[in-house]
Amino acid sequence: MDDIHPFYADLMNVLYDKDHYKLALGQLNTARNLIDQIATDYPRLLKDGDSLFRCKSVKKAALGRMCTLMKRQQSSLAYLEQVRQHLSRLPSIDPNTRTLILCGFPNVGKSSFMNKVTRADVEVQPYAFTTKSLFVGHTDYKYLRWQVIDTPGILDHALEN
C-alpha cells in the first residue's frame, strides 16, 4: 500500500478504510507465511515415515492445517474481493500521463468534445446530466499521448436542496 502512487492511495482511503484494507492484507500475509512454514516442516516429517499409511497421514495433516488457515481468512478474502471488484469498475487513470480534464456546466458539449478528440464512446443526449461518472479516453496530439477525462456537469450551488 505504501508503494503505490499517492493518487491511488488517496482514492483507496476515500473509497475504503485504508486501515481495514491493510489489516486484511496483513492477515493474508501472516497466513501465507504460516502455510510456507507448514510446507517446509511437513516434508521433513515424511522422511521419518516408516510406512505408506504414515506418510499419507502426515500429508493429510499438512493439507488439513493449510485448509484450516485459509478457512479462517474467509472474511478477509471476501472483503478484498469486494474491493477488487469495485476498483475494477473504476476508470483507469494514469497519474503520470498528461491529462486534460473536461469540466463545466451541464449540457455544454463536454462529452461531444470527448467523442470527437478521442476514441471513447461517451453517451450524448439532448438533456442535462447524461454523464453520471468519469469517462477516460486517449488522444495523440503533436506526437504526445494525452488522457482526456470527461466529468459530470457541475452546478454552482449547494447540493443540499
Keywords:
161 residues; 3-stranded mixed β-sheet; 5 helices
Structural class: mainly alpha
Count of helical regions? 5
From the spread of the alpha carbons, the general shape counts as elongated
The overall pLDDT, averaged over residues, is 87
Percent of residues in beta strands?
5-15%
Low-confidence stretches: none
| Largest sheet, strands/sense/barrel | 3 strands, mixed
Give the strand order, joined by hyphens, for the main sheet.
1-3-2
Rg measurement, Å: 26 Å
Query: In angstroms, what separates the terminal alpha carbons?
Result: 38 Å
How many strands appear in the DSSP assignment? 3
Order of helices and strands: HHHHEHEE
Approximately how much helix is present in the residues?
Answer: 40-55%
In short:
With 161 residues, this protein is mainly α. It has 5 helices and 3 strands; from the N terminus they run ααααβαββ. It has helices spanning 6-15, 18-47, 52-72, 74-89, 110-117, and strands at 98-102, 135-141, 144-150.
Account of the protein in words:
The chain is mostly helical and 161 residues long. The protein has helices at 6-15, 18-47, 52-72, 74-89, 110-117; strands at residues 98-102, 135-141, 144-150. Strands 1-3-2 form a 3-stranded mixed β-sheet, with helices on one face. A hairpin with a 2-residue loop joins β2 and β3 (144-150). α2 (18-47) packs across α4. The model has no long low-confidence stretch (mean pLDDT 87).
